[in-house]
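Sequence design from tokenized structure. All designs in this work follow the same two-part layout: the structure record, then the generated sequence. An example of the structure record is given first.
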């Protein structure tokens, strides 16, 4: 089975939430690593110049190389090459420092989960020793550096598909502490300046914590948090008052779906849609929030239960094929919940449904592009710094039209409040049920 490689950052960065001292490398070693990386990008990436012209990319690469004129640490070199992400505009091409794969117990991290909205950052879950800082408070600064400047720096180095930055934001929402460490290091403590909802400003001095301690506090302090409840897999629920079914699909990774359901993807989907039909549901809410993608086959299979007439899955290429609706598929009104974590195969699924006019979309722009998505990345390890470079090898054409480098846009925009992350509250589900209720009036 062909696979559209998607980086399951949850597992990768849990392994990667560790730290090793960043040693110095000579300018010659760094230039050799940069030359190696550039050669791999220019010879292996199938669409390196889709988002930035070759002339502009060459100029930028030359300027980065010219900055390598003195010894520097792995961290400094990582910050240099990760600035390429904004130019490449490919969410499957990414760089991770060697620290992302080490397992040193002495690692300490920023003990807050954040919620990024525009150029501002809010406390989503406070796992620090200072419990006075409430969820929803705006973070104004960290260790004397303005929070907006920190966000600007990290966002400029974060992966994204084209002009869509919702995936970049989603990654920082979920893994800020790791990426802060990648770029700014791992201090023993943090002075955090905040402003609460009443406009009162304060600061707190909190120790950095190991990742296992942060997870333990999160589990105790926020037992219903969104990160715990949206870890992949598939679930089906019903809202009988609204004659609606809610199908939550956290991934399109076939292995994960099989492991969480205990049976094949085919049997799982068949049983679920039989239950939807038996329940008499007139509305189906397909929740693809935080679904970073996975395999083509589960995506195609799901679509067969949703479409009304035969259609072409993928505009062209090896994965392009006709798919036909299942006889026992869902024929009612379809709503799809999306956010910046709706990426890769998830974005492909959304683009298909939007192109067929099959669904109403609620949430925010998908993190994955709606016209074409690079994928099938292969890992290359830079010889000196050991930074891991994942470089796309293929491009998958979803729609046969000009690429505006944006994701699937929602029909109804909805951005949850920061404090929802920790409480398990779901304003988007309430919103879609409200829409369904109005239609029934």
């Amino acid at each position: 089975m062909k696979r559209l490689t998607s980086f399951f950052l949850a597992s990768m960065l849990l392994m990667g939430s560790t730290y090793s001292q960043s040693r110095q490398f000579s300018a010659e070693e760094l230039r050799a690593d940069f030359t190696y990386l550039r050669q791999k990008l220019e010879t292996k990436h199938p669409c390196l110049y889709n988002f930035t012209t070759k002339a502009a990319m060459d100029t930028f690469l030359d300027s980065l190389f010219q900055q390598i004129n003195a010894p520097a640490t792995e961290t400094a070199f990582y910050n240099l090459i990760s600035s390429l992400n904004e130019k490449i505009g490919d969410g499957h091409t990414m760089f991770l420092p060697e620290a992302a794969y080490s397992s040193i117990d002495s690692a300490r991290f920023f003990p807050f989960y954040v919620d990024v909205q525009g150029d501002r950052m809010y406390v989503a879950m406070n796992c620090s020793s200072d419990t006075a800082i409430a969820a929803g408070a705006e973070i104004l600064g960290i260790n004397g550096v303005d929070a907006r400047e920190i966000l600007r720096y990290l966002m400029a180095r974060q992966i994204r598909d084209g002009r869509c930055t919702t995936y970049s934001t989603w990654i920082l929402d979920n893994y800020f502490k790791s990426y802060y460490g990648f770029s700014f290091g791992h201090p023993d403590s943090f002075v955090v300046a905040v402003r609460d909802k009443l406009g009162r400003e304060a600061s707190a001095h909190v120790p950095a914590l190991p990742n296992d301690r942060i997870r333990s506090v999160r589990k105790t302090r926020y037992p219903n948090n969104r990160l715990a409840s949206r870890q992949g897999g598939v679930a089906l629920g019903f809202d009988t008052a609204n004659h609606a079914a809610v199908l939550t699909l956290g991934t399109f990774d076939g292995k994960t779906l099989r492991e969480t359901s205990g049976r094949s993807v085919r049997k799982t989907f068949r049983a679920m849609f039989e239950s939807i039909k038996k329940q008499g549901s007139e509305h189906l809410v397909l929740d693809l929030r935080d679904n970073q993608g996975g395999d083509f086959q589960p995506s195609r299979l799901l679509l067969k239960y949703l479409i009304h007439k035969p259609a072409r899955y993928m505009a062209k290429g090896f994965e392009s094929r006709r798919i036909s609706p299942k006889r026992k598929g869902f024929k009612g009104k379809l709503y799809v919940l999306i956010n910046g974590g709706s990426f890769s195969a998830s974005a492909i699924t959304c683009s298909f449904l939007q192109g067929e006019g099959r669904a109403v979309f609620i949430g925010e722009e998908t993190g994955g592009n709606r016209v074409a998505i690079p994928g099938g990345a292969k890992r290359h390890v830079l010889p000196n710094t050991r930074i891991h470079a994942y470089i796309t090898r293929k491009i998958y054409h979803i729609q046969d039209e000009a690429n505006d480098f944006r994701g699937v846009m929602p029909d109804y925009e909805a951005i949850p409040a920061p404090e929802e992350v920790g409480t398990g509250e779901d304003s988007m589900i309430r919103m879609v049920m409200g829409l369904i209720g109005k239609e029934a009036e």
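Residues 1-20 have pLDDT under 50 and may be disordered. We note this feature because it recurs in several other targets discussed in the main text.
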